[in-house]
Amino acid sequence: SAVISQKPSRDICQRGTSLTIQCQVDSQVTMMFWYRQQPGQSLTLIATANQGSEATYESGFVIDKFPISRPNLTFSTLTVSNMSPEDSSIYLCSVEDARAYQETQYFGPGTRLLVL
Amino acid sequence: AQSVTQLDSHVSVSEGTPVLLRCNYSSSYSPSLFWYVQHPNKGLQLLLKYTSAATLVKGINGFEAEFKKSETSFHLTKPSAHMSDASEYFCVVSVYYKYIFGTGTRLKVLA
Q1: Which domains does chain A have, with CATH numbers?
Q2: Domains, chain B, with CATH or none
Q3: Closest CA to A77 of A107, A55, A44, A106
Q4: Which of A50, A81, B37, B108 is the most buried (most CB within 10 A)?
């Protein structure tokens, strides 16, 4: 399986600021995903990021709040913009199994964000 | 529409006794189903997956799950719990890479 790293691993931010989270994978993958896990809750898909196209956002998430970049097949960033305390969550990236038709995702360690 | 329901938010077992974590799914399509474990302060680790091959799926660390279409269930089991199994477990249904997570089951293992 792919090895995925995220930076930063955790951060404490002031409301109104923005934070960019990086996701790096050690092999080329077509599909990358960003999830949010609010405190004590399950994971919710924010968006799917394919290289060479605009990210596809899920209902309830918008590009102005969560802009995503996918400049190549091994890297993606998620920005949390104009943060409020409600954005305090763990943000995780994942990648699809490079083998065809596996429908399996592998997850990074997550970024723990606290907004004051 | 696809959905997944984990029937227990918390499960406690004694070390050495069997583990059963329950998951029911709803899907209009032939689903792919997964179990992940989330250890504290770590990402999610894939335990096992069902993708329309054998209905009894064996995973890592002695876990297995059985796909029962008639019951729309995909329960996770382990014959003998170990202290290191204490974690949060998520059942996931996927249709064309869209992952829908269950609400999670926190497993506690008592010494």
Answers
A1: 4-115 (2.60.40.10)
A2: 3-110 (2.60.40.10)
A3: A55
A4: B37
Which residues from chain A sit within 8 angstroms of residue B97, using beta carbons? Answer: 31, 33, 48, 96, 103, 105
- For A40, left (φ over 0), alpha (ψ -120 to 50), or beta? left
For the segment A84-96, the average pLDDT, to the nearest whole number, is 95
Taking an 8 Å cut-off on Cβ atoms, the answer to whether A31 and B101 are in contact is no
Nearest residue of A to residue B92, measured between CA atoms: A43
Q: Within 13 Å and on the Cβ side, how many CA atoms surround B94?
A: 22
Answer with the residue of higher pLDDT: B80 or A51. B80
Q: What is the pLDDT of residue A38?
A: 95
Residue partners of B62: CB distance under 8 A and separation at least 6: B78, B79, B80
- Alpha-carbon distance of A80 to A99, in angstroms, equals 31
Chain-centroid distance of CA B26 in Å reads: 15
Residue A25 contacts B where some CB pair is shorter than 8 Å: no
The yes-or-no verdict on residue A33 having pLDDT over 70 is yes
Asked if residue A16 has pLDDT above 90, the reply is yes
Q: Give the residue among B4, B30, B88, B21 at the shortest CA–CA distance from A37.
A: B88
